[in-house]
User: What shape does this take?
Amino acid sequence: MTLSLADRCNVLAQGLLPQHAIARVVHALARTQAPWLKNAMIGAFVRAYGVDMSEAAIEDPTAYPSFNAFFTRALAPGVRPGADAHDVLACPVDGAVSQAGTADGERLLQAKGHTYTLSALLAGDAELAASFCDGAFATLYLAPRDYHRIHMPIAGKLVQMVYVPGDLYSVNAATERAIPGLFARNERVICIFDTSAGPMAVVLVGALIVGSIETVWHGEVRATPRRITRWRYDHVPMERGAELGRFNVGSTVIVLFARGRVHWNEAVRTGAHVRVGQALGTFQTATGS
Assistant: This one.
């Protein structure tokens, strides 16, 4: 695939930036509680991105104690009704479908002309990657204006979380076209669940100004020094629709399922806008579940 000069320049510039230093600065600014500064940042953000505050549990932007509290705001009750049928796969985020379909063996589609492997995405764990070969996957992009909490697509039991250090390239159409293996290069948090449809992975991918990634059971996920770090859990139960985690300033979620267990709706296609709780497809119960 031939890249435009703009795409090449964009990627080159990001590669030269001190990505993690920028993330640390954003992390600090997003948590300042100085009223004049946090209100200025929130107000500018609402205007720039046309944020619909009528959906928020707290509609007044100035009522949030920090920009991060505003950015990770809760929704008002009832604005995202969940799916009723037991075999429905619910959308975990508000956002847009970047890619969705079935893995080609171990290969996932990133963008036209670019694929990457399950093993690379899952921190080199070949055994874990084998669980998702030829399985359904969806890559969901969260724009700045979107609600930034992540929810369970189906009920499951948490068995493992993995922090993977990496780059912090921005995630958008340009970088997906220009950077091979983007999602397997960026910093990410991998959450593994046992479900009635078999194993499920929910991968939270960081980006250039993502101050941090949180999960509800751990809080901010960090490792010092920055290295692959794994946590094991004793099958902690989580219901469909329950909050799983959140992005403290934006990015992408990738969901993975075992072969033959999930069937996407026809509406789940590249560019489609989706919302939390929306039916993305159906799943089949794994034998013995």
Q: What stands out?
A: The radius of gyration is 18 Å. The mean pLDDT is 88. Residues 88-283 form one domain.
